[in-house]
Design a protein that fits this description.
The protein is an alpha/beta fold and 523 residues long. 38% of the residues lie in helices and 17% in strands. The chain starts with a helix and ends with a helix. The structure holds flavin-adenine dinucleotide (FAD) and NADP nicotinamide-adenine-dinucleotide phosphate. The site of NADP nicotinamide-adenine-dinucleotide phosphate has 24 residues, from helix 9 and strand 11.
């Protein structure tokens, strides 16, 4: 409040005390200063300065009026794409943002990653929808950037391009037997139960007794939870009907979640662990021996890790409370954490036709805390199982030969979202910082990228003059036979999904077949 009052006082004081001016140019002739010939030269200079200032002022106004709205393009419609667009639209009143997406539908991992039993997480879709409905934003679905249109073509059409295309691949285990039937990446398994078109035919065989999940992150816990949740608890979620059918027939009784390091290095978080501990019809299996000596060490670790480890420790070493004991007594299913085990080979069945187990290298830690490394001791352990799910992380792919890419880190090299050595090119989300972090983390980093882009725009670092934006790209796509879908097309598909889900009491029944979707849009 104070600075605004202060500015108002200065401005009104100046208005009151300035000499009377005809029009906007000061009339120096009548003043005492002019009557003194010694001042004449100084006054002439002063007048010229004022006139020049006025001319510049008018020019500035004219530039603003003539200024072309910045045309910005975002690649990817997951949280990173939408949060970047939101920031740009909010902080630049003229900016126009086109969001290109390879799928026919928007929202990235919010639709195809977030677990169906976590519907509250998907509420961010409401905010994204508001952004997409802005008159200055357009969704261009069904366009694969790097295939249907090249990044340099986008750069030529827009003032700036933001790459927010996530991490579409999975990290491979690179061990023998990885290709055997019965081995899946968690990414594909998640895509299957969440209706990702490319994974709709996955049909995992759940007729085995034991499943092994490699990796101890939140995706591993999502997958374990979906495998073990009583199917009737998933019936009212947006899980696909096909996946629910397979889960209803599942004979999986035990799920091992295997980590190459120890309890102090698990990558999952406390909320997700608590959900597992409280999962109906299941009981946890933790070996107290894995937790020996941990009580003393947890005093030194940061608070979130401390609370997580205390929960693990309690679950491993204490008798369950009355409520937990009552829930666990009739449990027919179990899940367990196995530590200090690194995947070495997927073991084939006797006929060699599918996975029948996994050989794990026993490890020990070198170093302490988060940075400790797992090194093999030389011992191994074989764990029989009929299903292996590798959940060791996602991975970004390079999108275009013209865009720098760090294959080791799996990111586009960047400084706070500015792609290194490519002016006008930016990145946000998982492709900017690697495949970790929740939606809130992605939001913060996308806002930062948006901020950098606007700073560059203000500093005149982006190409001057008008850019054609979508008009140029539309012509290119049309010449290549690509027909993008709009946000209102998505809203039609959305309405259809909601209506199909209604009969079964589900929030929606996802459409899985792109051809069917295009048919519904009259294509
Ligand atoms: C299984 C799973 C569950 C998760 N659950 C949660 C959760 O419960 N809560 C939470 O806060 N976070 C969760 N996360 C993390 C969260 O999903 C990520 O932080 C976030 O989605 C990353 O956003 P992004 O936009 O970078 O990537 P994405 O969400 O992957 O979006 C990238 C988009 O780019 C598109 N795209 C890719 N290539 C191209 C191309 N060539 N041309 C055009 N478009 C392209 C993709 O189709 C996609 O729509 C989960 C992650 C996973 C993997
Ligand atoms: N509910 C939620 O909020 C939710 C749900 C799902 C996902 N997410 C987020 O999405 C992000 C991605 O999750 P994520 O689980 O895919 O990744 P992650 O958190 O990075 O976990 C990957 C796990 O794989 C292990 N791993 C990596 N390479 C390995 C190898 N070669 N051999 C054996 N193990 C290996 C890691 O162990 P090391 O630590 O030893 O490398 C770690 O345990 C995370 O930030 C997560 O929090 C959030």
């Amino acid at each position: 409040m104070a600075p605004r009052c202060w500015r108002w006082w200065h401005w009104s004081a100046w208005r009151r005390t300035r000499p009377p001016l005809p029009g906007s140019t000061p009339n120096f002739e009548g003043s005492d200063e002019v009557r003194d010939p010694a001042n004449a030269k100084v006054l002439r200079k002063k007048r010229r300065r004022v006139q020049l200032g006025e001319k510049l002022g008018k020019l500035h106004l004219l530039t603003l009026l003539l200024e072309q709205p910045p045309q910005i393009c975002v690649v990817g419609s997951g949280p990173a794409g939408f949060y970047t667009a939101q920031h740009l639209l909010k902080h630049h009143p003229q900016a126009h943002v086109d969001i290109y997406e390879k799928q026919l539908v928007p929202f990235g991992l919010v639709r195809f990653g977030v677990a169906p039993d976590h519907p509250e997480v998907k509420n961010v879709i409401n905010t994204f929808t508001q952004t997409a409905r802005s008159a200055r934003c357009a969704f261009r679905g069904n366009v694969v950037v790097g295939r249907d249109v090249a990044v340099p073509e986008l750069q030529a059409a827009y003032h700036a391009v933001v790459l927010s295309y996530g991490a579409e691949d999975h990290r491979a285990l690179e061990i023998p037997g990885e290709e055997l039937p019965g081995v899946f990446s968690a990414r594909a398994f998640v895509g299957w139960y969440n209706g990702l078109p490319e994974n709709r035919e996955l049909a995992p065989d759940l007729s085995c007794d034991t499943a092994v999940i490699l990796g101890q992150g939140n995706v591993a816990l999502d997958v374990a939870r979906i495998l073990l949740t009583p199917p009737e608890h998933l019936e009212k979620t947006d899980i696909t009907e096909a996946a629910l059918g397979v889960l209803r027939q599942s004979r999986v009784k035990t799920v091992w979640i295997v980590g190459r390091r120890g309890p102090l290095q698990v990558a999952f978080t406390i909320k997700e662990l608590r959900e597992m501990i409280q999962l109906p019809g299941t009981r946890p299996i933790l070996d107290p021996a894995d937790f020996l000596g941990l009580q003393d060490r947890i005093k030194e670790v940061p608070r979130p890790r401390k609370r997580l480890t205390e929960l693990l420790l309690r679950t491993a070493t204490e008798k369950p409370g009355t409520e937990d004991a009552a829930r666990q007594a009739p449990a027919s299913r179990a899940w367990g954490l196995r530590f200090f085990r690194s995947p070495q080979q997927v073991l084939p069945s006797p006929d060699g036709r599918r996975a029948a187990g996994i050989r794990l290298a026993v490890t020990r830690l070198e170093g302490v805390g988060e940075a400790a490394r797992a090194v093999p001791t030389g011992d191994t352990e074989d764990l029989p199982c009929g299903l292996v799910l590798s959940s060791v992380g996602y991975k970004s792919r390079p999108i275009d030969p013209s865009v720098p890419f760090d294959p080791k880190l799996g990111v586009i090299p960047n400084m706070e979202g500015r792609v290194v050595d490519v002016p006008g090119l930016y990145c946000s989300g998982w492709v900017k910082r690697g495949p970790t972090g929740v939606i809130a983390t992605t939001m913060t980093d996308s806002f930062l990228t948006g901020q950098m882009l606007l700073q560059d725009l203000k500093a005149g670092l982006l190409p001057p003059g008008p850019r054609p934006g979508y008009a140029a790209i539309e012509a290119l796509l049309s010449s290549r036979g690509v027909r993008p879908v709009s946000f209102s097309d998505w809203e039609k598909l959305d309405a259809e999904e909601v209506s199909r889900g209604k009969g079964a009491g589900k929030p929606r029944e996802k459409l899985l077949d792109p051809q069917e979707m295009l048919g519904l849009l009259g294509r």
